[in-house]
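Contributing new complexes? Match this layout with zinc ion.
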Amino acid sequence: MNRRRFLISSAALLPATLRGSVARAQEPQAASAFSRERAIAGWRSRIEDFLGRGALPIVDTQATYHHSIDVEFIVREMDANGIAQVAFAPFAGDGSAASFALYEKYPQYFIPTTADGSSEHFYWYPDRFVSDVIAEIKTGRYFLMGEYELRHYPSPRQWRAGRMDRDVTVSLDSKAVHELFRFSEENKVAFLIHYEVEDVLLPPLEALLSRYPGAPVVWAHVGQVRYHNRTKRYGPDYVRALITRFPNLRFDLGSMVYPGQVYPGSGDRDMILYQFTGPPQGGYLKPEWKALFNEHPERFLAASDIDAGRFRQFPDIIQRMRRLIFSELTDRALHQIAYRNAWRLITGEAWGD
Ligand SMILES: [Zn+2]
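Output block (do not edit by hand):
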């Protein structure tokens, strides 16, 4: 196995020497002693540990924590799969403090991230939710904001369960959304949006991005298109055009979707990054998307999109991302997408060598 293969592969990670630093990482820090510099130094150290052993570290920027998740399982799988850090945005019912508590227990593993806007806590009460999150960011304890559902279709699992309450719309003209974009732009704190891809939805988003061009926004789930007949404009050329227009817009690769997945609402294969070749996981990254990722690697982020319902699939998702996407990247793109872009977004600084 050459070095590049080794970097992409998840095998052979975490030799015994690294376990020593893992054990040290588990010593809790007193909350009163919290220091952003110390947090960043701890994350850097764990990333460097992986690199030093020829493993490619991943920083996962999209994941939803819930108190029912087996955190020991997550930590074990992070070690086994080369995942340096997870920005674990808590389900809003658990509150942002749950993410900070994870950080305190495993300081090298978790990035304090404010509560996820993927529940009614946000979309029924957006003003209150956004003002609460802004107050939490101002404590200095959080580095990233979670995912905000601005337009969300029920996931395949939710669709099959009849969860049409998960068909969510929050107006891009609402006070809360403007407040979120404005705060992010002024304070350079990043957040994720979940926004379905449809021709009619694109102009309002472009208008919002034009109004707040300095806001570091991550549009989650690149290439996920639920209804093909509502979507003629979107594709790698459209994403490239947005990258050119909006210097602070990024996209994440967070998706449970495998090449053959069919969205039950439409009957369409909903991950257009892939050419489907056989049941159900068979496929490959389409050349036009591969070209885009390698041309603008600074705009894409690694992400798992795990949550309480699917966290056991964490290793499978990460391995799929390595197999289907990372294996197609140039060395430069690989390191940027796996951890360097996340590093810049979270710490505000370039990774450096
Ligand atoms: Zn989402």
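Reviewers usually confirm one structural detail per submission. For this one: The first strand starts at residue 58 and ends at 65.
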